[in-house]
Amino acid sequence: MLKSFQDVLAQAKEAGRNVTIAVAAAQDRDVLQAVKAAQELGLARAILVGDAAAIRLLMTELALDPATTIVDEPDMNKVGLAAVALIRQGRAQVLMKGLLNSKDFLQAVLHGQEGLRTGRLLSHLACLEIPGEEQLMFFSDGGMNIAPTLAEKKDILLNSLLALHSIGIRCPKVALLTANELVNPKMPATVDAQVLAALNEEAAFPACILEGPIAMDVALSPEAGRHKGIASKIAGSVDLFLVPNIETGNAVTKTIIHFARAKMAGIILGATNPIVMTSRAETQEGKLYSIALACIAAGSTLKGGGEYA
Ligand code: COD
């Protein structure tokens, strides 16, 4: 059971995948420090795509392995696709966002002819280690899908469950996050949560204990559940929070990071290959944990189709 990012690193080292990462717009100190740490831990090699002159300067400063391959693409409009091309050519197995905007990076990933689409929905999964908490907590989707429809929420849930299963959480506890436990047609998230919970009763998803609609207080605290008269099997031990929209996921995770000094890793699921996507402001530590998470969540990557094992 993964309880911390040290466990994630240990599992990634044990998996010994030693993959190659294609880093898009690698001319960034924190990105290169994370790459250096991943190389030294034996997690991954890297191909650095971006402004070669700027990358070389940083490599010297950080004493990065001088044998590390660089692909020169200083044009920020082309750098995402140049890194994606390395994945398509089989020269790299994991894609990583460097110093470019998430939107530009994701548009390269989603490119119709030259991207990494599988026919499935792609979604972002955030993993947080929060001081004082006994387990890692996962949030989706606070990074890619802006206002998911019910069908998209199904896919986001499926992507997340496959990833959690592949990192060893066999029966994740899932909270379908809303502002209230009562179903209210004026709050569409509660209606969607009710439908998803009913689908889970029919075994539409991989193994999980899923509850919703459920508000954050009950999801976090059995005591709050008792006060509100709600019997919950997941209160206080939720693995995965499925949020109703990108603003909720983004704000919740960034708030936890700020106030609780949490650490976060972020990956994109549902593409042909695992993808590391963190905020440009994320620390080198968070970027390293994201690489490790991508390496061990690779088992959830399906080549086309929508079925799951
Ligand atoms: N999965 C699979 N295909 C997708 C997805 C997805 N999640 N999103 C769009 N597509 C496909 C569509 O079906 C269509 O074929 C094509 O891509 C273009 O769709 P649009 O027009 O909706 O795409 P864009 O380019 O306008 O938007 C896609 C983004 C992912 C760039 C957009 O949703 C976005 O900006 N998301 C938020 C990124 C962000 O700022 N995150 C916060 C910081 S971490």
TrEMBL record:
Domain of life: Bacteria
GO MF annotations, alphabetized: acyltransferase activity
One Pfam family per UniProt: PTA_PTB
This protein's record includes keyword Transferase: yes
Domain Phosphate acetyl/butaryl transferase: start-end pairs: 7-72, 77-295
Protein keywords: Acyltransferase, Transferase
Matching InterPro entries: P_Ac_Bu_trans (IPR012147), Phos_Acetyltrans/Butyryltrans (IPR050500), PTA_PTB (IPR002505)
Entry-linked PANTHER family: PHOSPHATE ACETYLTRANSFERASE
Family in the record: Belongs to the phosphate acetyltransferase and butyryltransferase family.
Record protein name field: Phosphate butyryltransferase
